[in-house]
């Protein structure tokens, strides 16, 4: 087996920081001695929650996404502040996006306690997914409830047709894979 040596940073070209992302430009040298200019974005980690209430998946109202120029369905989610624990942020996100009080969350289970690395040639971040089972007695405020899909094979298939967010789709399908064999959509 050939030993894989890491590339070496030869020079920092630029670093631009904001609360949500950092743009980094570097001059790298590969193991063969070739020099490459490489630019990447380091994003804040994300938390996405699948809220289940009385057998239904709940979504907040559609949001306008400037990057795609359209209103989209997304599960409740948001960026993870530096130093914050994903499980501590999930109830805050549910309150903000669905009006769910922490007392109405019966269980909050991580799908991936270490987070999935969302990595491409251009961007890096971690994605933490949670399943929130809400009390059957919880009342969802009409102003914060945008969509409701039954957690059944046909309901999940219909929702998958509506979700454009790849991270939301990944969390939903990962949860389906962990459930009964009939859950994943056909």
Description:
It is a single chain. With 186 residues, this protein is an alpha+beta fold. It folds into 2 domains: 8-42, no CATH class; 45-178, Nucleoside Triphosphate Pyrophosphohydrolase, CATH 3.90.79.10. Helices cover 19% and strands 40% of the residues. The protein has helices at 86-98, 153-162, 166-178, and strands spanning 8-17, 21-29, 35-43, 46-53, 56-59, 63-65, 70-72, 77-79, 105-110, 116-119, 123-134, 147-150. Strands 1, 2, 3, 4, 5, 8, 9, 10, 11 and 12 form a 10-stranded mixed β-sheet that branches. The mean pLDDT is 89.
For this entry, give a set of tags.
two-stranded antiparallel ribbon; 19% helix; 12 strands; alpha+beta; elongated; 186 residues; 3 helices; Nucleoside Triphosphate Pyrophosphohydrolase; ten-stranded mixed beta sheet
- CATH homologous superfamily of the largest domain? Nucleoside Triphosphate Pyrophosphohydrolase
How many domains? 2
Report the average pLDDT across residues.
89
Sheet of most strands: 10 strands, mixed
Q: Based on helices, strands and strand pairing, what is the structural class?
A: alpha+beta
Based on CA atoms alone, the radius of gyration comes out at 20 Å
Shape: elongated
| CATH architecture field of the largest domain | Alpha-Beta Complex
Number of helices: 3
- The share of residues in helices is 10-25%
Order of helices and strands: EEEEEEEEHEEEEHH
CATH first level of the largest domain: Alpha Beta
Q: What is the first-to-last residue Cα distance?
A: 41 Å
| DSSP, total strands | 12
Q: What proportion of the residues form beta strands (DSSP E)?
A: 35-45%
Low-confidence stretches: none
Task: Write the CATH fold name of the largest domain.
Answer: Nucleoside Triphosphate Pyrophosphohydrolase
